[in-house]
Predict the structure.
Amino acid sequence: MLTIAILSLSGCGTIGAYTETDRNTQVNFSQYNVDTDSYVNKQTNLKEVQTGLVSGNTLLYAAQVTLPLSGTDKSSLNITYPLWINESEIDDVEFAIDRYRQWQSQSIPNKYLLTQAVNEYVSEWMNGVTFKFGLYSTKQGQDFLSVCYEFSASKTCTFTYMIDAQNVEILADDLQKFKQESLELGS
């Protein structure tokens, strides 16, 4: 089994002062399951971190998933689906959420079998990683906010995961709490 640890930090002392706090969240990311031809929710873990290299606090969402390497053998790949949101990036994520809400509020929402891009940002937490948000519909009619994790130099998605309507709202609530706490600490 091959393991990719995307959230690992290497090199002691390279990130300056570092603190992390576990936070509660109910956000799930969705992973496509080829066996059932449907999307399966994967619970995320959430940490709030602060480091000397990035100003402000950053929310680090992470969901552990296993992807088969091929349909013919038992090999698999463990991947962490990340979403890193620095205080300075909240507006970018909220813009994508608002676009998703507008799309869903249409009396007959358009269907996008190819991802319809709505917003993106280069992560403050991990410079060189771009998060791209889009609107996506399955053939079965389920609608998602898609999140593409892309190394900026490659210009292609390393992987894409989905967030369904219920979890988009939970994410929006998490961001509102985070903003409120940041405002209270700044007062």
User: Anything to note?
Assistant: The longest strand covers residues 54-68. Confidence is low (pLDDT under 50) at residues 1-13. The two ends are 49 Å apart (CA to CA).
